[in-house]
Amino acid sequence: MKTLKPHFRSTGTQASVLCSDVCVSTESRVIKRFPFDPYKRPCKRPRLEMELEEEENNPEGSSTGEIEGPHDPTDPVESVPALTESADSTTKSSAPVQRTPTYIVYENCLMELFQVCPMCTRESDVRVRRLGTFLTVQQHCRHCQYSRRWNSQPILGSTPAGNLQLSAAVYVNGASFFSIEKIFKTMNLKMFHHDTFRRHARTYIEPAIVHKWRTAQGGMLAELCQQQNVILGGDMRTDSPGQNGRFGSYTMMDLRRNTVIDVQLVESSEIAGNDHMEQEGLERSLTVLKDHDVKPDCVVTDSHPKTQEFLSEATFTHYFDVGHIEKGLSKKLRKISQRKDCRKLKKWLRSIKNHLYWTAVSSTSGPERVAKWKSILNHIQDIHVHDDPLFPRCPHPHRTSRDTNKWLRAGTPAFRQLKKVLTNERVLRDVWRLSPHPHTPSLEAFHTLTTRFAPKSVALPFLGMLCRLYMAALHFNENAGRPQATTAAGEPLFRVAFPKSKKGECTAKPVKVEPTYRYVGELVDVVFDKVFQDPTPYVEEVLKISRNPDLSVRLDKPDELEVISSYVSRINQGRT
Fold it and tell me: What are 318-375's pLDDT values in tens digits?
């Protein structure tokens, strides 16, 4: 089978700048036929030392196939570490290697290009070697001694560009290496091992993420230090459900711009216990703000006792988030409304919830909030004039209700239980400091996004967790201000949802435009254009991050055989 005309010879093209690869091009030129090969092979350039990966004897790690004819095993050109350039001419491409389009090519289709010698049109010997996603093909003709080498991807220094690009793509998109590996195996796509992925992550990808976040964070804090009336909100998220979380991430958000300005990762072994995580994270975030001369006017948090104690002497105003307080009250009232003599409360649950939010937004001082909050006890009795001068009467117009049975009466079990909950001393203290600024929706949206990058079911190391939090913050900040999508006619788009909080009731939610992922391309550019060129300063920046050593490092490593010999399954415990 002929793939090229006898009097044409293919030329090689170099796929990108700063690499040493030769690939097949469609360019051709006419040459004069000789009974012998007049083209002498040029002197080889110094060998390119490839990545060290134990794949030579692993069928999943490397593949070596010969189409026809033996090769001299002592030829240095045939060794895996030695990948030299072909004798063909090359042309350089202006596109960066990470921007070059890539394709999936089947092996039998690729081998069709090398089975026939382009010089004498006879069958050639073909030898294939692989390193992860990298493939090199050596073609040799025994008749005219024509020889060439083709690389499937550029070589950056000693690293195949495709291997590094795949590692970066998996990491910066928040994907799992093992999930991608399963997909590759299903499609029979060749891939490198997890050790190579971790080496790329430690050396190039994680330093790039830290550098990218620190640069973006510095710009945001520089703007905040020039502003007045800075309103911030903070909240904690643990890496696992319950009280046994290893990590706690504290997020500080600019509530005016709806952007994440700081993320602190706290490990439970660093402090006295999980109850101190939130205070430690808040303290670290405030230290970062102080170092950048950011002076907040108020900070909105939950009503955690440790947080209240820590901020009791703060120079700014400390507000409590309405959402956290509402959730606690609603949970208690729902439980009371399930009693037989308190079922009337079910009709008032939504009204009480709305009244709490209205109290926070419409009030300007703590006493006014408490006065408005207590007025709900008169309102549910159909009494709309109150004794408190700060809130003497309800602002709504007088109405005659059709359902007179919905009103509660003083002295009934339902009213007594409701009054006990709403006028609790701790509830009144929390209402006094209710925040007029929205807090919960933005931070909960960020925490939901964080679960996509760092699932709670996956155990991650400290630096891996921190980098995924940084990527979640970059994604959130880029897409925080997305507008509502519209139809071709300009009408706003909505969708019908059935949220869990509505207990089966539907609600309309606006449909936002599709999110963007510019930060992904920027991170990949940082990996290739900056960190890969000189990783030392970026790695040093990562090493400056304060982290607690793992618990296993503090303990003496036991003998493995003794641990195995002492193993007893739970089923066999107690048996002799």
Answer: 999 998 899 999 999 999 999 988 888 998 999 999 999 999 999 999 999 999 999 9
147 CB-contact burial (10 Å; exposed 0-12 / middle 13-18 / buried 19+): middle
251: DSSP letter: E
pLDDT attached to residue 551:
67
Sequential DSSP letters for 58-99? -TTT---EESSS---TT-GGGSSS-----SS-----SS-GGG
In eight-state DSSP terms, residue 244 is -
Contact 327, 398 (CB under 8 A): no
Tell me if 369 sits within 8 A of 360, measured CB to CB.
yes
pLDDT at 246 over 90: no
**Residue 97 · residue 156 · CB < 8 Å:** yes
Residue 208's H or E segment, with its range, is: helix 206-224
| Whole-number Cα distances in Å, 1 to 37, 106, 113, 367 | 22, 18, 10, 92
96-99-100 Cα angle (round to 5): 90
Strand partners, 354: none
Contacts of 273 (CB under 8 A, 6+ apart): none
Cβ proximity of 253 and 446 under 8 Å: yes
The CA-atom distances, in angstroms, between 75 and each of 72, 176, 575 are: 6, 40, 64
Instruction: Give the other-Cβ count within 10 Å of 104's Cβ.
Output: 6
| Closest by Cα among 335, 333, 364 to 349 | 333
Q: Is residue 558 pLDDT above 70, yes or no?
A: yes
| Dist. CA 376–CA 356, nearest whole Å | 9
In this predicted structure, the answer to whether residue 545 has a pLDDT above a threshold of 60 is: yes
Spatial CA neighbour of 204 closest among 249, 240, 172: 172
From the list 240, 241, 236, the residue with the least C-alpha distance to 251 is 236
CB 143 within 8 A of CB 120: yes
Please count the other Cβ atoms lying within 10 Å of the Cβ belonging to residue 528.
22
212 contacts 522 by C-beta, under 8 angstroms: yes
Element (H, E) at 129: strand 125-131
Angle at 350 between CA 349 and CA 351, to 5 degrees: 95
pLDDT, position 73: 33
60 pLDDT above the threshold of 90: no
